[in-house]
Automatic annotation (TrEMBL):
This is Fructose-1,6-bisphosphatase class 1. It is found in: Cytoplasm. Its cofactor is Mg(2+). The gene is fbp. Residues 213-336 form the Fructose-1-6-bisphosphatase class 1 C-terminal domain. InterPro entries: FBPase_C_dom (IPR044015), FBPase_class-1 (IPR000146), FBPase_N (IPR033391), FBPtase (IPR028343). NCBIfam families: PRK09293.1-1. Its main location: cytoplasm. Residues 20-208 form the Fructose-1-6-bisphosphatase class I N-terminal domain. Belongs to the FBPase class 1 family. It comes from the Bacteria. Its EC number is 3.1.3.11. Homotetramer.
Length: 345
């Protein structure tokens, strides 16, 4: 019997399809301090749900799943049908996967206890962010944070398992359902991005080791709320205009964040009269993006302190958010701290 060592093909006839997310997760498993494979499985569960949500969002116009669901969520926002569907998809994937003991979701009033006391992880998730953009074919996203539970497995979940500061995240990521669908995640060892190849049904590594530019020329803020900003934010945005920076605001946090992460820029959602503590949620929006930002060399602050160090006290706690290229965030933060705060109108 003749045995030959494998020689990778050099002919170039069959081009390489690259590294799948599954293979990448497996390769990187040993980077993770508790490398037991459970976190890897959890990431795969999230990726599977993301593929299903991707299928449903891209077909939304064809099936009767566009438009409002007819209910208001705990945030007081009108739920879209796809918000509800995405929530079901992720809940199902996370509960069947068996690695998770509890879920905090934008769409759920309370913590969802999966009654799986052997699960080591807690997931905080915004299943479909920017959902008001669904019906008009504009990019939307999923944002997730993964925490290791603090209490021992085998015992019921406690408040301390849920109310963890962002610094405690063991992994975080987002899925962007855009001109292509991407999954970007970190386990605290850099940030990697994967593009979904629809015909193969796989995410492939397309953006290895993402590094955010330290500075940029894009600012993203809802200028319709300008009358309600504090002086520091006003001064910073004026300065962006003086410098002829470009204003780019999609109104989908994941999409705005992703663009600025790759191109250099800053996203701001400051306190306003309507949302005096900011609009974005700490546990399942700001924290995940803040970890990714920091891992890519960017920054995230509420204007005063690092987002990741905020100790949450309530489930759906909101926070002002300034996130993006480090030089821009530092400059905005310093203007906020030096200018005397004007009362909100
Ligand atoms: O989750 C809230 C969200 O939809 C973000 O995706 C988005 O950046 C922001 O709200 C848009 O808010 P507004 O419409 O007030 O600008």
């Amino acid at each position: 019997m003749k045995i030959l060592p494998y020689q990778p093909d050099q002919s170039g006839l069959a081009y390489s399809v690259g590294t799948t997310l599954d293979r990448f997760i497996k390769l990187k498993q040993s980077d993770f301090p508790f490398a037991s494979g459970e976190l890897s499985q959890l990431l795969r569960d999230i990726a599977l749900a993301a593929k299903i949500v991707n299928r449903e969002t891209t077909r939304a116009g064809l099936s009767n799943i566009g438009g409002a669901f007819g209910q208001v969520n705990v945030q007081g926002e009108d739920q879209q049908k796809l918000d509800v569907i995405a929530n079901i998809r992720f809940m199902r994937a996370l509960s069947k996967g068996g690695e998770v003991c509890a879920i905090v979701s934008e769409e759920e009033d309370a913590v969802i206890d999966l009654q799986n006391t052997s699960g080591k992880y807690v997931v905080a998730i915004d299943p479909l962010d920017g959902s008001s953009n669904i019906d008009v074919n504009i990019s939307i996203g999923t944002i997730f944070s993964i925490y290791r539970r603090k209490t021992p497995t085998g015992s019921p979940i406690q408040k301390e398992d849920i109310m963890q500061a962002g610094t405690e995240q063991v992994a975080a990521g987002y899925v962007l359902y855009g001109s292509s669908t991407m999954l970007v995640y970190t386990t605290g060892c850099g940030v990697n991005g994967f593009t979904y190849e629809q015909s193969l049904g796989e995410f492939f590594l397309s953006h290895p080791n993402i590094q955010a530019p330290t500075n940029g020329k894009i600012y993203s803020v809802n200028e319709g709320t300008q009358r309600e900003w504090e002086d520091g934010i006003l001064a910073y945005i004026d300065q962006c205009k003086d410098r002829r920076y470009s204003a780019r605001y999609i109104g989908s946090l994941v999409a705005d964040f992703h663009r600025n992460l790759l191109k250099g820029g800053i996203y701001l959602y400051p306190a306003t009269k309507k949302n005096p503590t900011g609009k974005l949620r700490l546990l399942y929006e700001a924290n995940a993006l803040a970890l990714i930002a920091e891992q890519a060399g960017a920054m995230a602050t509420d204007g005063i302190q690092r987002i990741l160090e905020i100790q949450p006290t309530t489930l759906h706690q909101r926070t002002p958010l300034l996130i993006g290229s480090s030089e821009m965030v530092k400059e905005a933060e310093s203007m906020i701290s030096t200018l005397i705060k004007a009362p909100l109108l």
